[in-house]
Amino acid sequence: MPQQLLLFLFIILMFLPEAEILADLPDTINRVKHAVVGIGTYTPTHQSQASYRGTGFMVADGRHVVTNAHVLPSSLNAKRREHIAVFVGIQGKVRRAEKVVVDHKHDLALLKIDGASLPAFSLGNASRVREGDLVAFTGFPIGPVLGLYPVTHRGIVAAITPIASAGRVLRDLNPQRIQHLRSEPFKVFQLDATAYPGNSGSPVYDPDTGKLLGVVNMVFVKESKENILKDPSGITYAIPVDHLRTLLSRAGLKP
């Protein structure tokens, strides 16, 4: 009888859907959070040396970082030796970074850091994402207030919808701006999850596999940007990972 029971259980396990035997979300977070970094600038000659601007994450060889194009500064103060910085770990260790490729249309930027490689995300397939799929994203919603502790939110893909442009001026949407989103549309993921300004550039991933599905880039704001922390809308937009594949290809990198 025990042998028959074991055989029965073995047969059931063989036919279980793959997702049911994959790691759960806590295990996935523990695995991917080390690939999530802060993005900003560093000015060694200034009293406030570090300035946090958003979230990023490691890809490819572990020395390349993806974030939103709008997270990067439009200019740097050369006289003060200001440079783009990637902040690693809870203490926010500074790693100097340089721009490699920027895609303003899809609000994506690829950077390269100095020093040793870090854990990196594996890329998933955006074409397999369906409305109703569970997703998670990890980042630094309020920046390094008490240290760079990665924060994870989860939700579902509420819609796969056209959007006109993901550039700098559209990073925070309100009802008035939506009326102007009519030219050069492309599809984005609308998530029923709450993100904040510091989440710009956060990786959106499959909660079971940890594979990258998109990049957070916009938050729907009901009234003003100032109200987002006290009254979030719970609507977030993400750029599908396929546009990141194109960006990596332009840089001569394999996902």
What would the keywords be for this entry?
255 residues; mainly beta; Thrombin, subunit H; 2 domains; six-stranded antiparallel barrel
Describe this structure in words.
Keywords: Hydrolase, Protease. GO terms for molecular function: serine-type endopeptidase activity. This is Serine protease. By secondary structure, the chain is mainly beta. It has two domains: 33-113, Beta Barrel (Thrombin, subunit H), CATH 2.40.10.10; 126-250, Trypsin-like serine proteases (Thrombin, subunit H, Beta Barrel), CATH 2.40.10. 14% of the residues lie in helices and 35% in strands. It has four helices and 13 strands. The protein has helices at 2-14, 25-32, 175-178, 241-250; strands at 36-42, 50-59, 64-67, 83-88, 93-103, 108-113, 134-139, 151-163, 172-173, 186-191, 203-205, 212-220, 236-240. It has a six-stranded antiparallel beta barrel. Strand 11 and strand 12 form a beta hairpin.
Stated plainly, the CATH topology of the largest domain is called: Thrombin, subunit H
Q: What proportion of the residues form beta strands (DSSP E)?
A: 25-35%
Number of helices: 4
Strand order of the largest sheet: 1-2-3-6-5-4
Secondary-structure element series: HHEEEEEEEEEHEEEEH
Largest sheet: 6 strands, antiparallel, barrel
- The total number of structural domains is 2
Q: Give the name of the CATH architecture of the largest domain.
A: Beta Barrel
Distance between the termini: 49 Å
Give average pLDDT, whole number. 82
In angstroms, what is the radius of gyration? 19 Å
Helix content: 10-25%
CATH class of the largest domain: Mainly Beta
Pfam families: Trypsin_2
GO molecular function: serine-type endopeptidase activity
Organism: Nitrosococcus wardiae
Keywords: Hydrolase, Protease
